[in-house]
Amino acid sequence: MAHGPVIVIETPRLRFRPLTVEDADELQALYSDPEVMRFFEGLRSREQVLMEIEEAKRSYQRLGFYLWAAIHKPDRRFIGRCGLLPQSIEGRRELEVAYMLARPYWGRGLGTEAARAIKAHAFTRLHCARLISLIAPGNEASVRVAEKNGMRYVKEVTLNGYVDRMYVVEATGGLTDLLP
Ligand SMILES: CC(C)(COP(=O)(O)OP(=O)(O)OC[C@H]1O[C@@H](n2cnc3c(N)ncnc32)[C@H](O)[C@@H]1OP(=O)(O)O)[C@@H](O)C(=O)NCCC(=O)NCCS
Question: Is the CB of 28 within 6 Å of ligand 1?
């Protein structure tokens, strides 16, 4: 009997599942849109995309999370990659809520839906104590998503030579804060 992929998180409009090598074309298309990549360094080569998918597979095994494929339920399309990225910030281990969606799907509340569901997953299923988002100066859409995800601005940090603004949320709120 055929089995579908493991669904890690489900929201009203989105499904998150592990990335596979079959996502390479879609992922590369996402990384080839200069608007999507406006606040990221450089566009990604095929090799980099495949390396990222390999890294994701290692992390699923080792940690149980990483970036996942975001599938838009109404049309079943791959529309982005979102998830949890381990980061080391000033010597402290942090977990970042990361989100990136294809441009045609912007402005419909999907970024917020994704970020909230990932936060709820991290707090309730993975028992994380604190989450961050690292946002390039000027990325207002991402700032709004972070704010709507209950995050507050803490400080500027330098990561790989780039200045980012760090937003934080701690798992101290009531259960209602965690509802997607
Ligand atoms: C960030 C991103 C995921 C947001 O996705 P989205 O689905 O459009 O976000 P939402 O529809 O949930 O909108 C969230 C809020 O941001 C606001 N917003 C969206 N685009 C905006 C923009 N360009 N400038 C200012 N505010 C913006 C929306 O109005 C909404 O706020 P509101 O509810 O108060 O009106 C999407 O823009 C994206 O993938 N960008 C490229 C990758 C990226 O930069 N990722 C973040 C890296 S830190």
Answer: no
